Amino acid sequence: MGYDVHITRAEHWTEAEDEPISLEQWKDYLASDPEMRPDKVAEAPLESGGTLRYESEGLAVWTAWPGHGRGGNFAWFDHRDGEIVVKNPDEAILAKMCSIAEKLGARVQGDDGEEYPEDS
């Protein structure tokens, strides 16, 4: 499963579609950030064999993440339902999310509604 953290303009991420970050706004942001690469497809090997494949028009990877490519790990940012979602972000990814949120006029919230950075 995992824990999602959300970049949203809404008061609470569950209401992101009420104050959405549009796909076009996300794509414009991606075009302005040389550290972000729109990929649209993510693949990961499964322990049982085979490959897990996920496709999304708003899927991008942060190529400057310190763990990029190590052990098959990537920092995926997924635009969906008016928000950008990252699963199980580390501190570096959270910092990048906060930077992106500032540029998009948004906030960063965890699944439980906590705000990042936590000291704000």
Number of strands: 9
In oligomeric terms, what are we looking at?
single chain
Main sheet makeup: 7 strands, antiparallel
Terminal-residue CA separation: 28 Å
Instruction: Report mean pLDDT, rounded to a whole number.
Output: 94
Number of helical regions:
2
The arrangement of helices and strands along the chain is EHEEEEEEHEE
Which regions have little confidence, pLDDT < 50, spanning 5+ residues? none
Widest beta sheet: strand line-up: 2-5-6-7-1-8-9
Helix content: 10-25%
Radius of gyration: 14 Å
Give the domain tally. 1
User: What proportion of the residues form beta strands (DSSP E)?
Assistant: 25-35%
Shape: globular
Structural class: alpha+beta
Task: Explain this structure.
This protein has 120 residues and is an alpha+beta fold. It has one domain (4-116). Helix content is 20%, strand content 32%. The strands form two sheets. A seven-stranded antiparallel beta sheet has the order 2-5-6-7-1-8-9, covered by helices on one side. Strands 3-4 form a two-stranded antiparallel ribbon. Strand 6 and strand 7 (83-87) form a beta hairpin. The mean pLDDT is 94.
Tell me the layout of helices and strands.
Layout (H helix, E strand, L loop, with lengths): L3 E5 L14 H10 L3 E3 L2 E5 L5 E5 L3 E4 L13 E5 L2 E5 L3 H14 L2 E4 L4 E2 L4
Antiparallel strand pairs: 1-7, 1-8, 2-5, 3-4, 5-6, 6-7, 8-9
Question: Characteristics of this structure?
Answer:
2 helices, 7-stranded antiparallel sheet, alpha+beta, 120 residues
